[in-house]
Amino acid sequence: MTQPALLQDDEISLTRLQALYEQAGIRTEVDEDGDLAVHPGELKAFVQLNEANRQIRYVAYYGIDETAARLDKLELLNRMNSDYIFARFALVDDEAISADFYLPYEGGVSAELIVESLQLFGVAVPSAIAGSDEAGLIR
Q1: pTM of the entire structure?
Q2: CB neighbour list of residue 25: distance below 8 Å, 6 or more residues apart
Q3: Cα angle value 110/31/138 (rounded, 5°)
Q4: How far, in Å, CA of 118 to CA of 40, rounded?
Q5: Beta-carbon neighbour count of residue 34 at 10 Å?
Q6: Tell me: the pLDDT tens digits for 39-90?
Q7: Contact 29, 14 (CB under 8 A)
Q8: 101 with 128: CB under 8 angstroms?
């Protein structure tokens, strides 16, 4: 079995990632701020590069019930972080949550892994929310 070709560190850019996602049939767009938005399934996520640490970051944002107690919000996120290890969930200014995942690319990463990790993110995040948010706090 042959190993997939690796994209080297200097080959990773938002333009290259956008092309990979589009080749895989994932809808992409660049918003008015220049951010790369991707749509793996029903999820809208953003792709960011941390070039200093050689990481690709996938992040999605959701609204959360602003009238809910802060403790209820934190307990929900703690439960999600405990039960679902693929993504990390965090409270953003008490009015939203973020879900993110970092894919390191130092030393090279395959195009297949880049695409498959985004597709998994697109399934894992909605699944974690559906499986954890019995009170309907996340919007």
Answers
A1: 0.93
A2: none
A3: 85
A4: 7
A5: 7
A6: 999 999 999 999 999 999 999 999 999 999 999 999 999 999 999 999 999 9
A7: no
A8: no
